[in-house]
Design goal:
By secondary structure, this protein is of the alpha+beta class. The protein has one domain (2-95). 17% of the residues lie in helices and 42% in strands. The chain is built from one helix and seven strands; from the N terminus they run E-E-E-H-E-E-E-E. The protein has one helix spanning 32-49; strands spanning 2-3, 18-22, 25-29, 56-62, 65-72, 75-83, 89-95. Strand 2 and strand 3 (25-29) form a beta hairpin. The longest helix has 18 residues, at 32-49. The radius of gyration is 13 Å and the shape is globular. The two termini are 24 Å apart. The chain binds zinc ion (ZN). Residues 8, 10-11, 13, 29-31, 34 line the site of zinc ion. Zinc ion is lined by residues 8, 10-11, 13, 29-31, 34.
Length: 103
Amino acid sequence: MKRNYDGCAICNSTWGNVWAEIGEERLFFCCDLCVVQYRELWERVNREVGWDRVDSIDIAGDRRGRTCEVASGDRRARFVFAFNSVGKLLRFQRAELPSSAGG
Ligand SMILES: [Zn+2]
């Protein structure tokens, strides 16, 4: 799967050395909390879109609030979300896709 981060799959930090297998992939994380967060997000996104596979995920934002854009083929979905202090989803809702007209 394509991701927009080179570092930690949640926060893009490059320190730390935690690896976890999520969605058949072995991903790098800075800490265990980010693993919990990503697992939460991954499961929720997959449940929400109902696609047989997600090809890419783009995460933006910081701990106060993040957005992610997921894609599978030409299908796209966007969500806004935030985690609580133990890495559970505090907020998760579908958002409007940015209109990319003129690109
Ligand atoms: Zn992290």
